[in-house]
């Protein structure tokens, strides 16, 4: 993600940060830290992103909450699956 320092953050930068929260279920605080902005800025970007994005109308708030929980769990499981490969690569490079 890149930013335009002369006029603040680009729309692409703000949208990419918002997608990290909305689509990947990353915590706002983590995305804000990675982007070098305040959590409130990311929350504002997420709100704007959701305002123009069409959400499935047939989901109840409980279903949306459950979907977010499942997405978060999925992300954690993916990270757990990737870790052994990363560790193997690290140690293989270290001992060559």
Automatic annotation (TrEMBL):
Superkingdom as given in the UniProt entry: Bacteria
Pfam families per record: HTH_Tnp_1
InterPro entries reported in the protein's UniProt record: Homeodomain-like_sf, Transposase_8
UniProt-recorded name of the protein: Transposase
Organism of origin: Amycolatopsis minnesotensis
